[in-house]
Amino acid sequence: MPLTLVTLVRLVAVVLLAGAAGAASAAESIQPPSMFSPVSTPAAEILELSWLVIGITGAIFVVVETLLLVGIVRYRRGRKDDGREPAQVYASGPIEMAWTIVPIIIVAVLFLVTTRSIATLQKDSAPPGWLDVTLVGHQWWWEFRYPEYGITTANELHVPTSGPGGGRPTFLTLHSADVIHSFWIPQLAGKTDVIPNRENHMWIEPRESGLFVGQCAEYCGTQHANMLIRVIAHPPEEFEAWVQSQQQDAVDDPEVRAGRNRFLSTACVNCHRVTGTRADGSFGPDLTHLMSRATIGAGIVANNRENLIAWVKDPDHFKPGALMPAMGLGDPEVERVADYLLTLQ
Ligand SMILES: [Cu+2]
Questions:
Q1: Centre of ligand 1 from the C-alpha of residue 34, in Å
Q2: Beta strand 228-234 pairing with 210-215
Q3: Distance between Cα 253 and ligand 1 center (Å)
Q4: Distance 11 CA to ligand 1 centre (A)
Q5: Lower Cβ count inside 10 Å, N or C end of the chain?
Q6: How far is the CA of 215 from the centre of ligand 1 (A)?
Q7: pTM attached to this predicted model
Q8: What is the mean pLDDT of residues 325-329?
Q9: What is the distance between the alpha carbons of residues 219 and 212, in angstroms, rounded to a whole number?
Q10: What mean pLDDT value characterizes the chain?
Q11: How many Å lie between the centroid of ligand 1 and the Cα of residue 176?
Q12: Which segments of the chain are extended strands (E)?
């Protein structure tokens, strides 16, 4: 009975997923990344479809297992064993009709509802008025570009809230700079793979403001598990304010000139961009507004002086194998560079 097996696997997956969500919520006070509490149309659509499939396959499971148990108990050998085989029934028209037609109906229903969900979820281009964001997956961090506003940020995606009542949903175009990643924020939408030399699309429509977390969902190398995603949904006016602050060039604070000069004269500039300076690399995250991010290293540690110092000294300290090398600066130099980074609001 392949159907019962599929059902069992599904049920176990549901229980495991719920457990994982519970564990995550205990570790941090942010909302657990659970697909069972959607706040965005695509995620809600997927959950609705999942419940329907679980319902149908669950019902099949119950019917089949009940018949099996009844058969085992009622017809087990020994009750009135007269040594003869039970009556053998061949070619029962009604039974064969039933087990052909009922599965066809079930499969047709599943096919139709799935098609409806795919039609809702899949869009090849942004409908007019939507916010366009280009996402690039890198080992092991995320780059987010807003072509409309000319800004680039990393790991923390800021979007406006929206919903059936109005607002701008966000349309994401997904690219990879290296290997296959997968972008998944369970409360906002289903997973979408991020594939080299291919453009994939997805969209989100957070109905509430807040922080929604997720992570890379396709094994992409040693630091795959530390390739976290944070989506911050703002009310529209707050989002506009965020955009305006991101559009400013980096501040040039004379108090941290020493650190700035060190940064600009080190290979940092080949991998990182700070607008308004000669740092124009794109291999690593854009640092122009580094301090507007709550975390560094794709969500793995808080963005503060202590962690910045530890990171610049040796990224492997937090992320063994990270593609940023330890730059071999002495302790006082690292501190000065960190003081400069701290001014990049
Ligand atoms: Cu990845």
A1: 19
A2: antiparallel
A3: 35
A4: 27
A5: N
A6: 8
A7: 0.85
A8: 91
A9: 21
A10: 89
A11: 9
A12: 131-138, 141-146, 151-154, 156-160, 162-163, 166-167, 170-176, 181-183, 192-194, 200-204, 210-215, 228-234, 295-296, 301-302
Confidence check: pLDDT of 18 > 80: no
Distance 135 CA to ligand 1 centre (A): 12
The pLDDT of residue 81 is 67
- Confidence at residue 254, expressed as pLDDT on a 0 to 100 scale: 86
Q: Where are the domains of the chain?
A: 2-75+93-121, 131-247, 254-341
Cα 216 to ligand 1 centroid, rounded to whole Å: 5
Q: Count CB atoms within 10 A of the CB of residue 15.
A: 10
Ligand 1 centroid to residue 187 C-alpha, Å: 19
**Lowest-pLDDT range, 48-52, 189-193, 328-332?**
328-332
136 alpha carbon to ligand 1 midpoint, in Å? 10
Stretch 14-27: mean pLDDT:
47
Rounded CA-CA distance 26/152 in Å is 32
CA 136 to chain centroid, in Å, comes to: 13
What amino acid is encoded at 268 in this protein? C
Distance 139 CA to ligand 1 centre (A): 6
Q: Right CATH number for 131-247 from 1.10.510.10, 3.40.50.720, 2.60.40.420, 2.30.30.240?
A: 2.60.40.420
**pLDDT > 60? residue 2:** no
How far is the centre of ligand 1, averaged over its atoms, from the C-alpha of 334 (Å)?
Answer: 29
Residue 175 Cα to ligand 1 midpoint, Å, equals: 12
Given the candidates 3.40.50.300, 3.80.10.10, 3.30.230.30, 2.60.40.420, the CATH classification of the domain at 254-341 is 2.60.40.420
Percent above pLDDT 90 for the chain: 75
